[in-house]
Amino acid sequence: LVCSGSCTDPSDEISPIYSLWATFIGMYIANYVVERSTG
């Protein structure tokens, strides 16, 4: 389920929360990959 701002769903308040979680998880995975590659 990918929405690029052109969705008119009633669950509009879930978007910033999902974006925040995606950023947090992305940073965590990036850090994990760096730790693995340099480890």
Structural write-up:
By secondary structure, the protein is an all-alpha fold. It has a domain at 14-38. 64% of the residues lie in helices and 0% in strands. It has 1 helix and no strands. It has one helix at 14-38.
Helical residue percent?
Answer: 55-70%
Tally of strands: 0
End-to-end separation: 35 Å
Hey, roughly how much beta strand do the residues contain?
Answer: under 5%
* Helix-strand pattern: H
Briefly note the structural class of the backbone: mainly alpha
Low-pLDDT sequence parts: none
Largest sheet: none
What shape does the CA trace take?
elongated
| Radius of gyration of CA atoms, rounded to a whole number | 14 Å
**What is the number of helices?**
1
Return the average pLDDT rounded to an integer.
80
Based on the model shown, name its key terms:
elongated, single chain, 1 helix, 39 residues, transmembrane helix, mainly alpha, transmembrane, 64% helix, membrane
Short structural summary:
The chain has 39 residues and is mostly helical. The protein has one helix at residues 14-38.
Question: How is the topology of this model organized?
Answer:
Elements: H1 14-38
